């Protein structure tokens, strides 16, 4: 299927590895010019070189922390008028809410709720003027099925989802869509980090814990990031303009619900 994305411009946040990288690669394969951000310049440049080699698309890099005002300003200076915005940021650490003070909570809210909102604010009016825009927020399956040890992620990402639910309906008439991609367990560094605590408690290795998670899934495996990237491309396609304010769970069937 021709997605109608060739020649479009995309800003993909936290894209040096993991799910952000998968989205950037998927879009570049469709002929999209991508600007990717990440905090570690060396990793970011290596990813950019790989995407260029695999796709031939133009890739611009912006090293910096997208959760800061300076990081967002640098990203928007490099890609001021994106047709596509993929919001992504590393999730807050797991733990017990009794151990989290106000500053810890504010860092989580800044990263996983306010940063996407500020980036949407910066680009949505340009999308409206051009009559095309696709905004995809990478959140978490915990938005629909909370994970007890990820309380900060549950809260901050649910706040973003609630805000977007209203805004998406306001801009849809301009062919601007805002939707969420909610990953379950994908084989990324983030999965290894969140599994480390369980491994320490159980005496098993991280790999053994991930294998146990795979067995508990109806799909009997964890996700391949390339699958996630393809889902992002689908939501960004020209033909997806009637998908508005939705939250697509990619978790191999772990979330058990008749109505989604």
Automatic annotation (TrEMBL):
CDD domains: BKR_like_SDR_like. Transmembrane segments: none annotated. InterPro entries: NAD(P)-bd_dom_sf, SDR, SDR_fam. It comes from the Bacteria. Pfam families: adh_short_C2. Belongs to the short-chain dehydrogenases/reductases (SDR) family. PANTHER family: 3-OXOACYL-(ACYL-CARRIER-PROTEIN) REDUCTASE, NADPH-DEPENDENT REDUCTASE BACG. This is SDR family oxidoreductase. The lineage of its organism: Bacteria, Pseudomonadati, Pseudomonadota, Alphaproteobacteria, Acetobacterales.
């Amino acid at each position: 299927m021709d997605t109608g994305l060739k020649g479009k411009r995309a800003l993909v946040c936290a894209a040096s590895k993991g799910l952000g990288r998968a989205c950037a690669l998927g879009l570049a394969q469709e002929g999209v010019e991508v600007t990717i951000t990440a905090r570690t310049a060396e990793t970011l440049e290596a990813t950019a070189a790989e995407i260029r080699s695999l796709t031939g698309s133009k890739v611009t890099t912006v090293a910096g922390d997208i959760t800061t005002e300076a990081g967002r300003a640098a990203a928007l200076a490099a890609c001021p008028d994106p047709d596509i915005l993929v919001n992504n940021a590393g999730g807050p650490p797991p733990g017990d809410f009794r151990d989290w003070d106000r500053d810890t909570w504010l860092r989580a809210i800044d990263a996983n709720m306010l940063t996407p909102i500020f980036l949407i604010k910066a680009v949505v009016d340009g999308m409206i003027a051009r009559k095309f825009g696709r905004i995809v927020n990478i959140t978490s399956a915990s938005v629909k099925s909370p994970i007890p040890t990820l309380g900060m992620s549950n809260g901050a990402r649910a706040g973003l989802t609630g805000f977007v639910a209203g805004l998406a309906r306001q801009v849809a008439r301009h062919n601007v869509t805002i939707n969420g991609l909610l990953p379950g367990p994908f084989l990324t560094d983030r999965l290894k980090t969140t599994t480390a605590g369980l491994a320490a408690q159980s005496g098993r290795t991280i790999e053994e814990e991930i294998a146990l998670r795979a067995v508990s899934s109806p799909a009997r495996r964890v996700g391949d990031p390339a699958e996630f990237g393809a889902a992002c491309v689908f939501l960004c396609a020209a033909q997806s303009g009637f998908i508005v304010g939705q939250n697509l769970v990619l978790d191999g069937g772990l979330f058990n619900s008749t109505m989604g």
